Amino acid sequence: MERREVSFRIQRYNPQVDRAPFYDNFRIAVEKGITILRALNYIKEHLEPRLTFRSFCQAGICGSCAVRINGVSRLACTTQVWDLLTGGGDEPIRIEPLENLEVIRDLVVDIDPIMEKLKRNQSWVEPAIPEEELGRREHRVSDGEFETINAASDCILCGACYSECSMMGVNRDYISPPVLLKAFRMNNDTRDTLGCRRLREVTADNGLWDCAHCYKCMEHCTKKIPIMDGIHRLREEAFARGMTHTEGARHAQAFFDDIRHIGRLREVTLPLRTKGVLGSLGMVPLAVRMGLKGRRPPLLVKPIPDIERVQEICGRLEANREGEAAGAQHHLPLHPASRSGGVL
């Protein structure tokens, strides 16, 4: 069996005694086929018994061992040490706790914020069958109906997408990718009756429309779930249900209207159409600063050449949307779609 000496640089932190996080370095002999979790277990058992981390299933099912490995959120139990070695293997493998969550100790983070957001946004199925009849009768879900939520059901709440989300980095009150994915999954479960109420929750402030479309959640999902596709479908459902009175919905509608009519964005009037008169007044200082730096959007925007072709495409999209009933189910592919968000 092939063996190599491998260095690990592990972030340590005990809030009760340490002023700030620091790093410990360990060098151990590792066989090919060993995972990061097994390496951590060896270090804890033989070198540093105080090293603290979470683990349970060791099979990529429970999600409890998620950490940042060389700056990327992954499951320690499914990440091979050999796959991380570069060059001569002398570069240490860096292991840190997940981002955007408070560190309890070393590699263990507090996941209560995720659980609280899931609870606040009703991330469960409220069955149509009356409670007194549960157990005496069942609500059958066909293979086709389950296929709609199959990929989203694979979420193990490991927190990798929460850690990688760029919006979470600037706004801890943001709803977060796993909660939006659960909302998609529950809203497309044929047994559920909370769709409209749940959608109102997720479209509120710090919710669905604040997603920055960075695609990091989808790129780093440990189960390869196309999370962004679910977020897009939730936005479509919000429009289908007439939930268009939020700033985010108005912003998206303004984009679509401009592209449909002239093929370009009319930036000058965008704040007014999104925020209204009073809300736009708050952006005047920003507009002045942009103007002083030469960032002045054109007052008059001419249509692009061949705008008729764009309008034809938009017409087809609108016709398809009208053909779908409000709250219609949308299929999430079993495998991730491309970063560009291709048609499903």
TrEMBL record:
SUPFAM superfamilies: 2Fe-2S ferredoxin-like (SSF54292), alpha-helical ferredoxin (SSF46548). Residues 322-344 are annotated as: Disordered. Keywords: 2Fe-2S, 4Fe-4S, Iron, Iron-sulfur, Metal-binding, Oxidoreductase. It comes from the Bacteria. GO terms for molecular function: 2 iron, 2 sulfur cluster binding; 4 iron, 4 sulfur cluster binding; electron transfer activity; metal ion binding; oxidoreductase activity. Residues 4-101 form the 2Fe-2S ferredoxin-type domain. GO terms for biological process: respiratory electron transport chain; tricarboxylic acid cycle. Its cofactor is [2Fe-2S] cluster; [4Fe-4S] cluster; [3Fe-4S] cluster. It holds the Pfam family Fer4_8. Pathway: Carbohydrate metabolism; tricarboxylic acid cycle; fumarate from succinate (bacterial route): step 1/1. PROSITE patterns: 2FE2S_FER_1, 2FE2S_FER_2. This is Succinate dehydrogenase/fumarate reductase iron-sulfur subunit. It comes from Geobacter metallireducens.
